[in-house]
Amino acid sequence: MKKKNIFTLIELLVVIAIIAILASMLLPALNKAREKAKIIKCVGNAKQIGVMTTLYMNDYDSYIPFGKADSGTWGGYCTTITPAWYCLVAPYAQIRVANFYRLGNAPSFRVEESIFKCPSQLLPNDTTLSAVGFAPNIRIANAAPSAGSLQWAKIQHIKNPSQKAWLKDTLKDAPMYYNPYQNATAVVTRHGGINNIVLFDMHVAKLTTAETVLYKDSAGKYFDPYDKL
Hints:
This protein is of the alpha+beta class. It has helices at 9-59, 85-89, 139-142, 220-223; strands at 68-69, 134-136, 146-147, 150-151, 165-169, 194-199, 204-208. The strands form 2 sheets. The protein has a 4-stranded antiparallel beta sheet, with helices on one face. Strands 1-4-3 form a 3-stranded antiparallel beta sheet, with no helix packed on it. Strand 3 and strand 4 form a beta hairpin. The N and C termini lie far apart (97 Å). 34% of the residues are buried.
């Protein structure tokens, strides 16, 4: 009679332990690879937004799609007369604009998988806000030339476009603008301390946290956009 090969309980536990050890060794590498893929997709999204920005400027006499009103809601950076930057460029990706600060359709306005959302970004707490993972440098608007009650700039006003920030990774509830004068609580760290930045020549750079806040000496290089106007 042929003898059957039967695992003993101890042998089974040893096999399970070996599998668990191998899994613990592989999972960090898999997670790292997954996050790297998300970063690559985020960069791809940012490049597409750069193309959309260029198309907008070509159609609107070189004006940058980000301005400021002296009065209004959202601190003046997102109003009926100065819509959110993403609402201005969204039509170039055939994304529906609901109103001056929302994309998509009621009731959620999520557009969760649009190119505006970073794959590593959490959704906004407010379910009526669109998921937008990038924000423009606030100094583009608040340091721009004035025309009546509005402040708008043209791409020609930007000095060294290949070094000046148009958009950067932002917090999930703060797509209206990024203020480099704020402290580190306004800085995004979802890519391991690296921020994806769309510069005004529309290429994407990767900056460290220290390079994205103006209380660090290096940040002015990227976030001070104008010569004297």
